[in-house]
Amino acid sequence: MSALLEIRDLSVSYGKVEAVRNVSLEIDEGQIVTIIGANGAGKTTMLAALMGLLPSQGRVSYQGRTLDDVDVEDRVAAGLCLVPERRELFADMSVEDNILLGGYTYRHNKALMRESFEIVYDRFPRLRERRRQVVGTLSGGERQMLAIGRALMARPRLLMLDEPSLGLAPLIVREIFRIIASLRDLGVSILLVEQNARAALETADVGYVLETGEFSLSGKASDLLHDPRVAETYLGGHT
Amino acid sequence: MDFQIAAFLAVDGIANGAIYVLIALGTVLIFSVTRVLFVPFGDIAAFSALTLAMIQLGRLPGTVLLLVLLASIALALELVSLARHRKWRAMPWAVLYYGILPTLPALAAWLLLGATLAVGWQMLLALALVLPIAPLLDRIAFRPLADASVLVLLIVSVAVHFAISGLALLFFGPEGFRTEPLTRAMFDIGGIPVGAQTVLMVAAAAAFSGLLYLYFETTISGKALRATASNRVGARIVGIRPGRTGTFAYLLASLLGGVSGLLIGPVTTLYYDSGFLIGLKAFVGAVMGGLTSYPLTALGAVVIGLLESYASFFSSQLKETLVFASLIPILIWRSVSSLQVEEEEEDIS
Amino acid sequence: MRSQRLLRAFPFLAAVLLALAPLVLSPFTVTLMNYIGIGAIVALGLVLLTGFGGLTSFGQAAFVGIGAYATAYVTTALGLPAIAGLVLSLAATGAVALFLGAITLRLGGHFLPLSTIAWGIAIYFLFANIPGLGAYDGVSGIPPIVLAGVSLQADGAIYYLIWALLAAGMWGIANLLDSREGRAIRSLRGGATMLASLGVDLFRVRLAIFLIAALLAGLAGWLYAHMLRFISPSPFEMRPSIEFLFMAMAGGATSIYGAVIGSALVILLKNTIQDILPHLSSNATQLEIVVFAVLLILLLQYARGGVISLVRRFLPVKLSLPMAAADGLPTRTMPQPGIALLRLDTIVRRFGGLVAVNRVSFEMKSGEIMGLIGPNGAGKSTLFNLVTGALKSNSGQITFLGRDISRAPQRAIAKLGMARTFQHVKLRPAMTLIDNTLIGAYPRTTSGFLRCLLRLDRAEDARATRSALDALTFVGLGDKAMELAGNLPLGNQRVLEIARALAADPILIVLDEPAAGLRKAEKLALAAQLRAIQARGVSILLVEHDMDFVMGLCDRIVVLEFGSMLMEGSPAEVRASARVQEAYLGGVA
């Protein structure tokens, strides 16, 4: 069986600066894969390229098809969805409208819309409570839930999450990761990019460590969690 | 000035303001979705009035030729761009969208030339003829500059105005026209004579503003427009195509411009280049709303209408100067109230 | 180097050719040249405003009109000489420009150009409706300019005045662009935050270039009125304004020569069109503008650089370093090591419902390298922006060198001696390293616009150049001073930002994630460099994510988590703290 997403020698440049260099990675159906790394390591750039928001070199295939000429909107329709680091919500619109627009690619299928709404609201009862509220009035955690909820509404097969724990209190982070782990039940595969190494590795099956645009380590998430070199990347070399 | 005159001027001003409301709303709509300040808006209003006038006179409206010209250029550009990206399969669609659909109204106008139509049908035909103008201009002038700064887009926008209003001279000729009013009835409200046409103008402007509101609030395509204006990246990652949404915004804007032209046609003699001033006055109203708020924009447009009406009473020669000079206090107010805004950067983490 | 010499000789060669031109050319061509010269004077202002400053005006023709009407009025109605007219022309355009600029230049980019449309139309109707100014008929019988007893009535005579004034204008603008204020002008598009952090008053610079552009237009108006000796409102409406803009864009808005090339192109094209169009249509004058509008659109779509950018490819690049004096700028006395330099007292900053920074207090001593660390989203960047003045706190106090800076504008804080770098490097990619570094010295120098225009700033500029070169050499980029910043790899761009900060002769440098995206060797070099800066007595506060980097470099560390202070201590203390470990590897156990 071929992988759901297969990346071979992906490079992404900003002007003359090469932010990601020759990165290769595979995600199988139903897997949770995490990429951990410090600020500026190129994680966000890599996800933006996979989504088609930035041009890149190398080979990326999704469900066995190359993504070369596929634009962002068609990637979404094919179930490749992104929860970006900055959330990118529609700030002056209601929670419900934000979720609704998540289903934009199949907007004419009312029944499917209703079904997806239920899935999202079941996962995030908080969003159901706040559905009439404007996004600007939500807390940081609720915004993250909404960003994930909006992406779920698109009925993803591969969900890419960029730093979902960013700026959230520990309790909320725990909640968010619990939800991420539970998405597997919906048949969603996940590519999780995180700085919160422990939480990410505890949730994922496979982990990669990205340093200055290249993978320095990779392996089973549970192995990486106990790898002294991972602690080193995050807490200085002398622990 | 006694009360009667003041009231008469007020009625007149509100009627003018109603026209500006529609155009100002369209200006804000296009700006928020595409970052383009669409200067040729007023031209579209003038074209729709002239088109209706020519239909009523049994002549072939100049819009027919304008549409054919614009559609040919747009189609050629689109086909070349598709060929360059080797997207052969998209070509039939391009022919449909840029070649066939925009020229259908032109064909209809040509076939119906000389036929006697009810006023309602005449108006519908006039609207259909101006509807494709803004989307075609978008494809020709603005789409190739998607990455350009607001400044460059603005320069292009002003240039587009001069290009099409100059062409309009070829297609419409230099004479001025006035269309048949839908009604000549007069009411007497508290001693002030009010023309039914005036009431119609205000009612139509209110109705279209209301429809626009409902469209934004209740339909998914309206919400997609708002989403694109609110957050472009956010819109793309849920599968909304900003280009297509932009086309739709231009269509809507064309509609608003066209309707306002039909409303203003019977009360003012319009020439091929009358639209510029109308559009600019609407823009002054839009500036009051900071180019973001729809209700404030509508309010600003009405205020401009009133101002113009009173200004013309005091000095018909200097009325334009007075109206545009009113931009100054508005800008001072905006400038003072925006001082804090510029310091606030969106930076949470 | 032969081509270099050729380039330097070019202005003289051009001057000689232009001086001889009226002797050989037909009278018609001389008249055409006069129009080209006047157009170029207006376009020159737009090149400064649009090409370099990123602002634009659709009302330049209205400024020309004010200049023309002002002189027409005083010379006909009051019978004063043309020189008096010039004074009034410039005074009137200047006053109007200052007023309009004052109310629009603080607003976002599109308010200025749009209000220039509105005001351009307003002024046209004003001219056309004031009986004292001849209404639509205009003013006739304007006397010719008399200079030193010589009447410049003939086209061949005023020709010399027009082109001499144009040359003077180009000389002035070229001087300006190559000066302290010019570097600020060329940085206008780099963003408000960057400029403010360098001590530049964005509004003042914008207002100055808007004023200069208007004065040039006023000058052109004065020449125009006395050349034609008759004026009417129509040349001052919107259409000619578009033509002026087209001149600036067509020639190339990023070169002062572009103004002349563009003006020549437009005037000749116009002349040709006027020959051809009447054969095609009876509405020739109206169609002229269609041609220009379409050409302008095509130009902006396909060749935004204008003609000059096509030519420039074949011209030799200027390689020589700017003049540097033996001594740099005077330096400030550094505070005693160990005294309190920066104090934060219960700082709170909220974004809507989110508390990004919650009651943070710490003190930093002079001579220290202090690190500010914490997981992503801990509030480091917000705190950083509060310290540099880019954001204001909701409550609490920040003191720098004993002064309360909690409410001070960014610019004032920069002048006190705080320099910063950016996480996402903010440089001017199309400017050289030395120019980028020189902007850093902006608050240490004082030459204003007038001195810069007249090239009276050279002594100061040479000293600033020395200081900037020293800073570049200090960070190891001295040999690349004339390269473009955009051609540097990311690591060097960060280093260049540090050089720019050093050029400000700072007491405190605040670094935002300096190690982000750097490779291991680059990080080591950066750390060594920062220690060398510390050795010069400069204090350093850095926000950083890379623990290795921070641990090895800092004297003391403040750890943030969820907007609050987790702890403060030496690297060893921080490393030993279980709470920090927890915060970093993730609070979800």
List keywords for this structure.
heterotrimer, A: 239 residues, alpha/beta, Rossmann fold, six-stranded mixed β-sheet, four-stranded antiparallel β-sheet, 10 helices, disordered C terminus, C: 589 residues, 2 domains, 14 strands
Task: Describe it.
The complex is a heterotrimer of chains A (239), B (349) and C (589). Chain A has 239 residues and is α/β, with parallel strands linked by helices. Chain A is 37% helix and 26% strand. Chain A folds into two domains: 57-194, P-loop containing nucleotide triphosphate hydrolases (Rossmann fold), CATH 3.40.50.300; 205-239, no CATH class. Chain A is built from ten helices and ten strands. In chain A, the strands form two sheets. Chain A has a six-stranded mixed sheet, sandwiched between helices. In chain A, strands 2-1-4-5 form a four-stranded antiparallel sheet, covered by helices on one side. In chain A, α3 (95-102) packs parallel to α6 and α4 (110-123) packs antiparallel against α6. The longest helix of chain A is centred in the middle third of the chain and has 14 residues, at 110-123. The radius of gyration of chain A is 17 Å and the shape is globular. In chain B, strands 1-2 form a two-stranded antiparallel ribbon. Chain B has one domain. The N and C termini of chain B lie far apart (60 Å). In chain C, a hairpin with a 2-residue loop joins β2 (146-147) and β3 (150-151). Chain C is an alpha/beta fold. The model of chain C has no long low-confidence stretch (mean pLDDT 87). Chain C has helices spanning 2-24, 27-52, 60-76, 82-104, 111-129, 155-177, 180-186, 192-197, 202-228, 238-251, 256-280, 284-302, 306-312, 380-388, 410-416, 433-440, 449-453, 458-474, 490-503, 520-535, 547-553, 571-576, 578-585; strands at 139-140, 146-147, 150-151, 230-231, 340-351, 354-365, 369-373, 395-400, 403-404, 418-420, 508-512, 539-543, 556-561, 564-569. The longest helix of chain C is centred in the middle third of the chain and has 27 residues, at 202-228. Chain C folds into two domains: 15-314, ABC transporter involved in vitamin B12 uptake, BtuC; 336-417 and 541-589, Rossmann fold. The chains are: A alpha/beta (239), B mainly alpha (349), C alpha/beta (589). At the B-C interface, α7, α12, α14, α15 and α16 of B face α5, α10, α12 and α14 of C.
